[in-house]
């Protein structure tokens, strides 16, 4: 799924905080945003493996949420929401397409790496690829309650993320061709630093 979809769903995880402890909501929304985006910082270094932990992040989220419930503070709530968002990101990557330049061709059987199982989890392709129309639909479903429930700044961030999502959906397939041409133009000494999915075209 798109990074923006992960970010929006991470922010959705802050809605219970808004409902029960609104004084912590701004920090919780920020934690959801950052936690939803953070796993994709491995985009160019072992993508969907280096910072994606579908099992371990989920296990770490349980005590973090418990701590936030029984000892609510900015720190405990940020930790719980951020971990939950990162765990959700890693887990939901498995419902999308494979790790390849053109995932709509369904040529890869690697969706996300499970360090617990020491293997790649195969893509389910319920969301055919990042930037598919259904991906934008999921982003919209997440955005709706956030715009309704959250205050001005959060709503603005949500609408910006949704707009970026829409543009990416329109450009997704042409961007693969741009990336392919860029990878071929990279000088030989630098090619090892180009992600594998761009080199294998």
What attributes characterize this protein structure?
3% strand; mainly alpha; 201 residues
SSE arrangement:
Blueprint: H1 3-12, H2 15-20, H3 25-37, H4 56-70, H5 74-92, E1 112-114, E2 119-121, H6 133-149, H7 152-185, H8 196-199
Antiparallel strand pairs: 1-2
Task: Write up what this structure looks like.
Helix content is 59%, strand content 3%. The protein has one domain. It has helices spanning 3-12, 15-20, 25-37, 56-70, 74-92, 133-149, 152-185, 196-199, and strands at 112-114, 119-121. It is an all-alpha fold. The two termini are 21 Å apart. The protein contains 8 helices and 2 strands, in the order H-H-H-H-H-E-E-H-H-H. Helix 1 packs antiparallel against helix 3 (25-37) and helix 3 (25-37) packs parallel to helix 5. The protein has a two-stranded antiparallel sheet with strand order 1-2. The chain crosses the membrane at residues 51-70, 77-99, 154-171. Keywords: Membrane, Plasmid, Transmembrane, Transmembrane helix. It comes from Halopiger xanaduensis (strain DSM 18323 / JCM 14033 / SH-6). This is Membrane-bound metal-dependent hydrolase.
Short recap of the structure:
This protein has 8 helices and 2 strands, in the order αααααββααα. It is mainly alpha-helical.
